[in-house]
Amino acid sequence: MLVYVARRIVYVIPIVISVALVCFLLVHITPGDPLVAVLPADASQELAAQMRTAYGFDRPLPVQFGLWIWRALHGDLGASIATGRPVLTEVLRAVGNTVTLAIAAALIGFTLGLLFGLIAGYFRDTWVDKVATSVAIAGVSVPHYWLGMVMVIIFSVQLNWLPAVGAGPGGSGSWGWDWEHMKYLILPAITTSVIPMGIVTRTVRALTGDILSQDFVEALRAKGLRELDVFKHVIKNAAPTALAVMGLQLGYMLGGSILIETVFSWPGSGLLLNSAIFQRDLPLLQGTILVLALFFVTLNLLVDIAQAAIDPRIKRG
Amino acid sequence: MAVMSDTALQAAPITKARGYWATVGRRIVRDKVSMVCALVLVLIFASALLAPWLGLADPYQGSMIRRLRHIGTPNYPLGTDELGRDMLARLIYGGRLSLIIGILPVIFAFVIGTSLGLVAGYVGGRLNTAIMRTVDVFYAFPSVLLAIAISGALGAGIVNSIVSLTIVFVPQITRVSESVTTGVRNMDFVEAARASGAGPFTIMRVHMLGNVLGPIFVYATGLISVSMILAAGLSFLGLGTKPPEPEWGLMLNTLRTAIYVNPWVAALPGVMIFAVSICFNLLSDGMRSAMDIRN
């Protein structure tokens, strides 16, 4: 097991370096001067040159990349051009809110997905299966930002039950574990949960169907096992793949939250990314993408290791 | 013996056994869900294509005194938007750009990804490692993040949005194409073609492409749904189409402010995205099960 973990970690290193390179280059394919956003329109040439040196934009690209990586390794992602605050502080604070949202959504989406998937796979081709499959396909096909709008229309505009935007009363950006704050979490969490719900349902349904059609299930039944015990075997066999899919979905929720966060003005990493893009705040853009991508890579690594821990066959493969 | 084989020949059916694709085609035509989806898609495509000849109102012509009319207003069956433009006309005209920016990336990625995967899978060795490790790097980004990062860096615009989505989908299709190709590469008929002196290009084009295209095609059809949602999503964020073009994602964005005045008109463009996306998903599912001959 240790050897497997070590091998997986070594394999991740080149990926991490390449990811950093992509994040770095992404910002340098940007048309236009990165300082346009901060310099006053009537800034003198001198001031512009001064700023360029201050931000290091005047050096050759490989040098900039080297310096950027070196500082990043020391926890310094530079300062936001728009606010002047350290990028890392801004990103980590925002990521905290995104994690809250993603975990709430995962609780809803994974629970429902596992439930629907197991039932649909077990009662294949019955009406229960048809209902569950329809819900799942709607879940994976719905433009979630639109669903968010519809939720706001129904629950905020029409019924006036839940707040439409923000993460807390009085526009507070910080999260608290009370009903006043919870109210703000409900709509974005349900909206975010729809895609993972659909994907987990579809995966688990297919897995359950496949496993039930295998010979060993026949053998278990022939041995006289009760259906409930047969079901335990099904769950055991479906677990590694289901786990991998859920891990990936959690990663997508963390990294792909920009649309939902924009709809609900949820103060997470997605909203931060949005403002970084439109204010052309390049250090912030680079930093946010890097942190989110590294989150995703780490999560995938953890899922691989957890998968190997449950299913010894994977280690050999 | 000779007599027996003669009778066997006579007893053989005169019609040829149906080929693989004909069987798949028959199975899909019999699938009601797939056919309904295909019909809905044909209707949406045809209306978008024929929009100028349908006698619709001008989708760009606004009117300050007719803003945000409700659904069912006389002359405005689906109401008007925040600038008083006819929603029905904008939704139908909107199909043009929305479908183009949603489907083109998948077509581009299909061509590029299939070729890359075919070469990687067939040639193998270092070339395979180089291509597939590059693909891995893109897998380190969640697709929404990658699309938005590239679009955000390139700036808003239709072309940039198509480019960024193509970059998002190429790695995914390359992976599918590579794994299918690797599975086919060592089969006897490829070996036979090689033994008979066919060069690598001939083998890839004539003997392998037909055998790998099916699964990749089904995968790509499923991607169209994701692509439609993402493309409209980029416009929704302000990274795709620019006003005043009618496009579903952008319409959702500009109508967001109207949800307190006329909520259901504001939600209409999303219904179109949803309809196209779910139809492509169901059609892709239908094709997959039709091509799965084991059933």
From TrEMBL, chain A:
Q: What Pfam families does the annotation carry? A: BPD_transp_1, BPD_transp_1_N
Q: What is this protein called?
A: ABC transporter permease
Keyword check for Cell membrane, yes or no: yes
Spell out where the chain crosses the membrane: 9-29, 101-123, 135-161, 181-200, 242-264, 284-306
Q: What taxonomic ancestry is recorded?
A: Bacteria, Pseudomonadati, Pseudomonadota, Alphaproteobacteria, Hyphomicrobiales
For the ABC transmembrane type-1 domain, which residue ranges apply?
Answer: 95-303
Q: How does it sit in the membrane?
A: Multi-pass membrane protein
Q: Where in the cell is it found?
A: Cell membrane
One function term, GO molecular function aspect: dipeptide transmembrane transporter activity
Which keywords does this Swiss-Prot/TrEMBL entry list?
Answer: Cell membrane, Membrane, Transmembrane, Transmembrane helix, Transport
Q: Tell me which GO cellular component terms the UniProt record holds.
A: plasma membrane
| Species assigned in the record | Bradyrhizobium lablabi
- Family indicated by similarity: Belongs to the binding-protein-dependent transport system permease family.
- InterPro entries xrefs: BPD_transp_1_N, MetI-like, MetI-like_sf
